[in-house]
Amino acid sequence: MRIVVLAGGIGGARFLRGLQQAAPDADITVIGNTGDDIHLFGLKVCPDLDTVMYTLGGGINEEQGWGRADETFHLKEELAAYGAGPSWFGLGDRDFATHIVRTQMLSAGYPLSAVTEALCDRWKPGVRLIPMSDDRVETHVAVEIDGERKAVHFQEYWVRLRASVEAHAVVPVGADQAKPAPGVLEAIASADVILFPPSNPVVSVGTILAVPGIREAIADAGVPVVGLSPIVGDAPVRGMADKVLAAVGVESTAAAVAEHYGSGLLDGWLVDTVDAAVVERVTEAGIRCRAVPLMMTDLDATAEMAREALTLAEEVRGA
Ligand code: FO1
To answer: Which residues of 154-247 form beta strands (DSSP E)?
Structure first.
């Protein structure tokens, strides 16, 4: 079975680990969000691609869900000693190697998709990881600080500001000129099922869908598209998805996120058992819906969620 997953950061990566256990023989292609990418110290950092690569490759810092395990920060300390900023983004020594190799290859003219494939040769994540685009897309957030309105890079909003200020708009800068990376549209066209994991529906899945051609390819794929709600009990399971949902005028509920994606895109939607009351509302929106446990408390729980999503997809296919 060929499965395509649109993945963002931590939630998407953890879900993928469960999916691999639930469908060990499946051929999984991950279309990774690159809107979180940031250029620091002359290096290109790809947080969502790295989180998937490290999580599935066994190098992730498990508690954080980002960065490397067994990390040290000597380089970060030395940079700070020179007053070379920014200091608010925690790049570890091991992680720096990934960004150096990536930047070297990009400087040599390799596209991000080829670079990602080369990095995955080391990590062997067990999925094909393709960036949504080889073109530069960076998510910026319009905020108001001390009465002054300005746009900040997503990472500054997320990490330095801890999403503590109101987000007035979330803009994937460059998305409208970006092209899907080689292999993205082909993977969608040959998929048997397409999954939206519990990633951030605005800055992760939403950014991937903002690359012209991707949303249309999924809508026209003619195979079941099933999503899992990142919102449980009107709050994001992790992160601050509710802040960016508000910025795009979507209430922070499992039903509103399904409606935000729309029945033109989504065929099925899993909500957590605490949100069982919204199954009817989602169904009325033309999206088949089921309430199942959605907390990724451990690998078995996550694998069960993945099995539920694949089962719902088969129900959709047979409908
Ligand atoms: N998140 C934080 O909250 N604090 C950090 O210092 C931080 C550093 C960092 C370094 C590399 C990397 O790949 C991710 C990092 N993240 C950090 C997480 C990152 O902001 C998020 O993983 C994604 O951008 C959101 O999906």
So the answer is: 167-173, 193-196, 225-228, 231-232, 235-236
